[in-house]
Amino acid sequence: MREDYLYNIALQCAELNSKGCACGCAGCQFNIFNYVKDVREASLLKANAYTDYHQKQDMISKNNVENIGIMIGGMIPILLFVALIAWSCSTVKSCFNVAQVDIKHEQPTQLAPIFEPNKVENIPHILAHMQRPGVVRDVNKDGKIDCIDYSITFYHLYGSNALIMINQNPSTGMNHMFVRVRGRLFDFYDVEPQGTPDRYSMGLIWGTKYDPRYNRDVTSQWRQYF
């Protein structure tokens, strides 16, 4: 088995473990010791994957803090400008009256949030947005809303680094579409788009019924809906 594939299995194990995985290790398809007989080699793969995963999470948290600071710093001039306009309008009666007329006739709009493309940290926010009524629609017009519609909607919101995947496993009855999100190097996340912001890993949701060996990339077959 390719080393990069084994490394990805160990990364998935690290992600599940960080979320409080309750699965038994002996029969888990993400247990690297089920694939590598050499205990030292398996331990090294697992240790490297766990280290890389947690370093990445620390980096994401650090970047989030820095981005929030930059965003707040950038908003200060805008807030001051808005406050200046509000103060000016409050001192001029005609300006105040015009503002009232505009507000009275303005129609409220529902705008979808704009997510920065291809950011792994946006996965929980996208899933939260998709749970709102009317966000996921019958994309392929087959008269139902199922895993196809959820996967394509997630792709639209996430970006071009996502892949549309199908897992067909006759031995477990698995026939399901989901999304694979590509990170850096060989890093990837198999996302159940019908999941929740705190529970969306395919392995965590489907357990032993999901065997990644049966995954197939079908992105090109669904481009007409992108």
Question: What percentage of the residues does DSSP assign to strands (E)?
Answer: 5-15%
* Mean model confidence by pLDDT: 81
CATH topology of the largest domain, what is it called?
Beta Polymerase, domain 2
What general form does the structure show?
globular
Note the run of SSEs as H and E: HHHHHEEEEHE
Largest sheet: 5 strands, antiparallel
Unreliable spans are: 92-110
Domains, number: 2
Q: Could you give the count of β-strands?
A: 5
Distance between the termini: 34 Å
CA radius of gyration = 23 Å
The percent of residues in helical segments reads 40-55%
Report on this model:
The chain has six helices and five strands. With 226 residues, the protein is of the alpha+beta class. The chain has two domains: 75 residues, no CATH class; 113 residues, Beta Polymerase, domain 2 (2-Layer Sandwich), CATH 3.30.460. The chain has a five-stranded antiparallel sheet with strand order 4-3-2-1-5, with helices on both faces. A hairpin with a 4-residue loop joins β1 and β2. The radius of gyration is 23 Å and the shape is globular. It starts with a helix and ends in a 9-residue tail after the last strand. About 8% of the residues have low confidence.
